[in-house]
Amino acid sequence: MSLRNYGTAARVGFLAAAVVFGLSGCGKSHDRGALWKVVHGRCAPDAAHKPCTVYDEKDGYALLKDKTGRGQYLVIPTQKVPGVEDPVLLKPETPNYFAEAWAERGHVAQSYGFEIPDAHLSMAINSRPGRTQDQLHIHLDCLTAYARAELDKNMITETWSLVSLYGHPYRARIVPSLDPSPFRVIAADDMSIHTLVITPAKHGGFILLDDMAHVFDHGSGEELQDHECHLDDPHHKTMIMDGMDMGEHPNGMM
């Protein structure tokens, strides 16, 4: 499928999904404002900004330990930004939330209690139909071993190409840095259906992955993350050597 046809098919598929699923997303029964209530209602007024690990009013973001996984963190704007679809993300003066998230990656390894190479880390933001919260949040955690292996064996360049991951067609390209913001690199007419994932490239720069929600694909790039970090967990490596690999657990995606 060409990249042009990929975009058209995804948009048509998403319209069909709207009819089938009623655009309910995967969080219909959840409080979709819970993250905003934590960051704005608890972290902002608290003298120590708890329960946030970091609350940087100057740079406009908070870092919050996610309840899912041992080392997963969320980077969340301190201003009300519903999600990937907000036009403010395309403005040059808006904080570069992906760059801020990457700068906080050391907290992930600290929470896991073991070293994690940058190449095994990732950042992901889910599409509107693929999320359960209506406050923008970037998931910062490890990649799955499968995703890392698939990306490394594909010839990804600075030109868009297609990579199939977990049966979903991601566009992939190398970007030399996180400036400009990946939101501005994508800058699609309808950003709401896009899910973005970023991880270091093998020979420098970053791999930018972009999928679009459509039928049977909610657009949750978080599927590429392993919230147990099996790639680097010494205990998991020991089980593999002993022939007792228990596999990866499903993600609890937001």
UniProtKB/TrEMBL annotation:
Keyword field contains Transmembrane: yes
UniProt record similarity statement: Belongs to the Cdh family.
Membrane topology: Single-pass membrane protein
GO molecular function: CDP-diacylglycerol diphosphatase activity
Pathway noted in the entry: Lipid metabolism; Phospholipid metabolism; CDP-diacylglycerol degradation; phosphatidate from CDP-diacylglycerol: step 1/1
SUPFAM superfamilies: HIT-like
One GO BP annotation of this record: CDP-diacylglycerol catabolic process
Name of this protein: CDP-diacylglycerol pyrophosphatase
Catalytic activity: a CDP-1,2-diacyl-sn-glycerol + H2O = a 1,2-diacyl-sn-glycero-3-phosphate + CMP + 2 H(+)
GO cellular component, one term: plasma membrane
Gene3D superfamilies given in the database record: HIT family - CDH-like
Keywords for this protein: Cell membrane, Hydrolase, Lipid biosynthesis, Lipid metabolism, Membrane, Phospholipid biosynthesis, Phospholipid metabolism, Transmembrane, Transmembrane helix
Main subcellular localisation: membrane
EC number: 3.6.1.26
Superkingdom of source: Bacteria
PROSITE patterns recorded: PROKAR_LIPOPROTEIN
Location within or outside the cell: Cell membrane
Keyword Transferase on entry: no
InterPro entries (alphabetical): CDP-diacylglyc_Pase, HIT-like_sf
